[in-house]
């Protein structure tokens, strides 16, 4: 039962193969087994890849089976259409496009398994890349808000500096009128004379201006700080909204890119393994000698080809014969005077009818 299944997988003509020896049947059963297991590996590899894309096991299984059936049908077609030739060069030229196709299939079915085998290493690379993307995203968003925040902070700094300058001025005036009262500067007279009162009034006026300035600038600074806080909140909100997109980083393309950053030798050996599996049916049929099945298949094909060629030749000969007979018949008719007189009579009647119709048309116009 299993042997018959693998023979079916090989694409061989079972009617012809049943008449062959047991060894010939085993050979094609082996080719069919290679085709089957290649499709099985392709189905598993596609299932892994689609699981990464859809993150749904049922969907991955369904599409994995469809991909496996596609590869199975393609390999079976390739193997079943290979014919043994008398020259090895002719056979190789025949199989060359199929080898290129096998190379492409091997690349396609090996990549998903590489992603699964090196999953831990790929996850580490993806984590590093995700961290870099997160930092780059924060810096990129910060570049949108930093100039505005820095400008607002500069305004606060200017307002604060203005208050500090006014406080320094008030302190100087305070020291001036105190030292005047103590007699250590100015008039150098102890007591609160007219000069003292004048300096005290200047100080009090400057102090009132300072209080007014503090009140005004405090409101301005509070408003500016509110603007800064709003910008910082908007920055944090934008970072928060963009984070889910970064959290989804790690799809199929990102994993393939991460795989390419790893050492190439392990991936190359896995690719070679699948290349050997994929080309095994083709190479086995190319390298084995022409067997009993090939001779019998060639016998049937050449027999049918001979019958078809004979039928084509007979139809061509029949066509030539009919053409020669028709030429002779119409030549004899052309020499027949009775047929000539009949043709002449009918032509005269037709011309008369045409002339009469023309006359009636011209008369109706007049």
From TrEMBL:
TM region positions: 28-50, 56-74, 95-113, 268-288
Keywords: Membrane, Transmembrane, Transmembrane helix
InterPro entries linked: DUF4407 (IPR025519)
Signal peptide bounds: none
One Pfam family this sequence matches: DUF4407
Name under which the protein is recorded: DUF4407 domain-containing protein
Provenance organism: Formosa sediminum
């Amino acid at each position: 039962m299993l042997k018959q299944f693998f023979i079916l997988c090989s694409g061989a003509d079972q009617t012809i193969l049943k008449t062959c020896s047991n060894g010939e049947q085993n050979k094609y059963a082996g080719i069919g087994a290679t085709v089957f297991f290649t499709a099985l590996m392709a189905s598993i590899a596609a299932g892994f890849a689609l699981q990464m894309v859809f993150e749904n096991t049922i969907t991955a299984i369904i599409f994995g089976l469809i991909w496996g059936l596609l590869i199975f049908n393609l390999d079976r077609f390739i193997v079943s259409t290979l014919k043994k030739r008398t020259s090895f060069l002719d056979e190789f030229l025949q199989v060359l496009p199929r080898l290129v196709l096998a190379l492409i299939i091997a690349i396609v079915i090996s990549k998903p398994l590489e992603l699964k085998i090196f999953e831990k290493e790929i996850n580490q690379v993806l984590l590093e890349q995700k961290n870099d993307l997160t930092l780059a995203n924060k810096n990129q968003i910060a570049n949108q808000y930093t100039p505005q925040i820095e400008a607002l902070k500069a305004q606060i700094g200017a307002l604060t500096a203005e208050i500090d300058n006014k406080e320094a001025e008030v302190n100087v005036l305070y020291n001036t009128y105190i030292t005047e009262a103590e007699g250590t500067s100015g008039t150098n007279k102890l007591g609160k004379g007219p000069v003292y009162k004048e300096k005290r009034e200047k100080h009090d006026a400057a102090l009132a201006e300072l209080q007014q300035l503090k009140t005004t600038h405090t409101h301005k600074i509070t408003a500016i700080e509110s603007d800064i806080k709003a910008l910082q909140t908007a920055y944090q909100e934008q970072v928060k909204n963009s984070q889910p997109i970064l959290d989804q980083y790690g799809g199929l393309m990102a994993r393939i890119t991460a795989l390419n950053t790893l050492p190439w030798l392990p991936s190359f050996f896995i690719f070679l393994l699948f290349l050997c599996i994929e080309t095994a049916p083709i190479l086995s049929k190319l390298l084995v000698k022409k067997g009993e099945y090939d001779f019998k298949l060639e016998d049937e094909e050449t027999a049918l080809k001979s019958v078809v060629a004979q039928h084509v030749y007979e139809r061509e000969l029949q066509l030539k014969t009919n053409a020669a007979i028709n030429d002779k018949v119409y030549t004899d008719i052309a020499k027949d005077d009775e047929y000539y007189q009949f043709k002449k009579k009918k032509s005269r009647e037709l011309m008369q009818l045409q002339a009469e119709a023309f006359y009636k048309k011209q008369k109706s116009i007049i």
